[in-house]
Amino acid sequence: MKTTFISRFFLNCLWYLIIVLALYFLYSPLNDNPKNKVNSSVQFVYQQF
Amino acid sequence: MKKIILIYFVPLFIVFSCLFLFSSKINSIFFYSKVNLTIDSSFKYLENFRNTPFYEDQFLTNNDSSETIFILGSSELTGNLEAHPFNFISRYFKTKIKGIGHAGNQCFSIYSQLLANENLLKNAPIIIVLSPGWFSESANGTSSSIFLEFNSSRFLNKIFQNDSIPQFKKYEAKRISSLYNEFSNPDLSIRMFFLENQSSKNILSKFFYFPIIEISKVLNTFNLELTDTKNKKTYIIERKSIVAESVKINWDSIFNISKQEQLNNCTNNKWYIDNEYYSKYTNGKTKMIDIVKGKNNQELKDFKMLLSLLKTKEVNASFIILPLNPYCYINSDELTPLINSLQNDILKNDFSCMNFWNTDTAKYDKGILKDIMHLSNYGWYKVDEFIIKKYKLLK
């Protein structure tokens, strides 16, 4: 039971880390690759208007 | 409940904390490795600013020991000829010349680059090379891709945040709006100019666009803080006086030798252009130049605004008007009134002008061009002589 709890905890940490890094990479304003359609997080917010 | 918090929320908190704490490390892994450009701090010529703040910050500045003259133009600056002013003059004089531009860098692109650095313009020695092709084949003005190549969002933000130049800012907004449909995924700075132009159309538009513009401004400020591209250089630099030097230059000998060298390269044609260019691109086929009159000539409007900016900011500017090969362009005399009007406008604003324009094959200075529109070494030496006289580099 305890092992499952600890493994779930670390597994979630890993999943969240992957997701957060992927989103950060895609939407960071520093990602100015011309192929990146979103271009920056601020623009992403702006484009929602 | 406690279990849910421990399994789901604590990992989330840890991940966000790590992202916040190690953001600079993460940025360096994700984004900065590609920005591995070798920066040449003593550059003589740049095709464009390479989207690098370092080169943008060097624009219109001088170095510790001497003044720097900037020569701005288009394709004629490429090719790294021995006689290019940034090679020839920089070699023999303390006053350095730096060239910026490549094909397509026309009046509006230059206007926008200068406007972004308007705090550096007073008395700045700037030479602008005007190509007749800008006012005929490319009379639609600077293309959107070239505009973006030379005018980063950093430059555009500097213009947008500057309220001391309303009439020039308005023209910038108008021209960016005219190019707006060509931009794919325009960034905030471009959008703001577009919105500003839309809002200036009437009171209703002003009312409608006001909140959108204000939100854009807030987002843009946020963006600038995130990307750390805020304009840090808003000071007015002190221009150095150009010191005249004693350099012996035998112009007659330079002209004779370089002219002969050029003529030696033109053995397969009577247009006095390089053999390789002649056989590869023209092969005796003459051309007709497009004549774009008055109202439809966007480049002419951009040129007039550029002149107005230079005059208002008291720039120590001069112009070079390039020729076209009269053997190739058989109707080039139809462009003469427009070229004359350019020259008149330049002189009316008290700027110097070296005009190479000539449509008469009998009076054509053979060997001045290496192809149908670009100066040879001989032609550039003539420009060097003009620059040295104009900016009093020689004692």
Lay out the secondary structure.
The complex is a heterodimer of chains A (49) and B (395).
Chain A: H1 2-27, H2 41-47
Chain B: H1 2-21, H2 23-30, E1 45-46, H3 53-58, E2 68-72, H4 85-92, E3 96-100, H5 107-116, E4 125-130, H6 144-150, H7 153-160, H8 166-179, H9 188-199, H10 203-227, H11 251-264, H12 275-282, H13 298-312, E5 316-321, H14 336-348, E6 352-355, H15 377-390
Parallel strand pairs in B: 1-3, 2-3, 2-4, 4-5, 5-6
Describe this structure in words.
The complex is a heterodimer of chains A (49) and B (395). By secondary structure, chain A is an all-alpha fold. Chain A has one domain (2-47). Helix content of chain A is 67%, strand content 0%. Chain A is built from two helices and no strands. Chain A has helices at residues 2-27, 41-47. The model of chain A has no long low-confidence stretch (mean pLDDT 76). Helix content of chain B is 46%, strand content 7%. By secondary structure, chain B is α/β, with parallel strands linked by helices. Chain B starts with a helix and ends in a 5-residue tail after the last helix. Chain B folds into three domains: 1-36, no CATH class; 40-145 and 242-395, SGNH hydrolase (Rossmann fold, 3-Layer(aba) Sandwich); 162-230, no CATH class. Chain B has 15 helices and six strands. The longest helix of chain B is centred in the middle third of the chain and has 25 residues, at 203-227. In chain B, helix 5 crosses helix 7 and helix 8 (166-179) packs across helix 9. Chain B has a six-stranded parallel sheet with strand order 1-3-2-4-5-6, with helices on both faces. The interface between A and B is medium-sized, with 24 and 29 residues.
